[in-house]
Amino acid sequence: MSSDVTTAVNTKLNEYSFLMAPVEQAMRELQLHRGMLRARAEEEIHALSPALATLSEALEISTLDLLTAPDRSAFLADALHKSQLSIDTIRERLLACGESDSESLKVLGLPEAS
To answer: For a surface tag, which of 2, 34, 68, 97 has the fewest beta carbons within 10 Å of its beta carbon?
Structure first.
């Protein structure tokens, strides 16, 4: 490449970098705000449902991920498998947090006790 073409290409590359800088900054800010919104939503959901908070903590999962999963049962089954906790252990923790209604446990998507 001639020096004129190289200079022109470098100029365009610099323009691109200059124009992308605010876009990349906005994307970082959006990611930050998304994370803050997720944390706030989860905190509020946990205040409304201590059972969801307990389940999320025990299985080390995001409550929002659980609630927005296309197949909650499959999501929970996978989380249970990864946690290596038994369904009975999870049920005991839920009962300890005050969740005694078996219908509520079903709504959470927990399988029947083993």
So the answer is: 2
Query: Domain locations in the chain?
Result: 1-48, 49-114
Q: CA-to-CA distance for 52 and 102, rounded, in angstroms?
A: 14
pTM, 2 dp: 0.73
**CA-to-CA dists, residue 93 to 32, 38, 62, 65, 70, angstroms:** 32, 24, 17, 20, 25
Give the C-alpha separation, 81 to 52, whole Å. 18
Looking at residue 28, what is its pLDDT?
98
Q: Which own/partner contact pairs does 69-75 have at CB distance under 8 Å and 24+ positions apart?
A: 72/109, 73/109, 73/111, 75/109
Quickly list DSSP for 32-67.
HHHHHHHHHHHHHHHHH-HHHHHHHHHHT--HHHHH
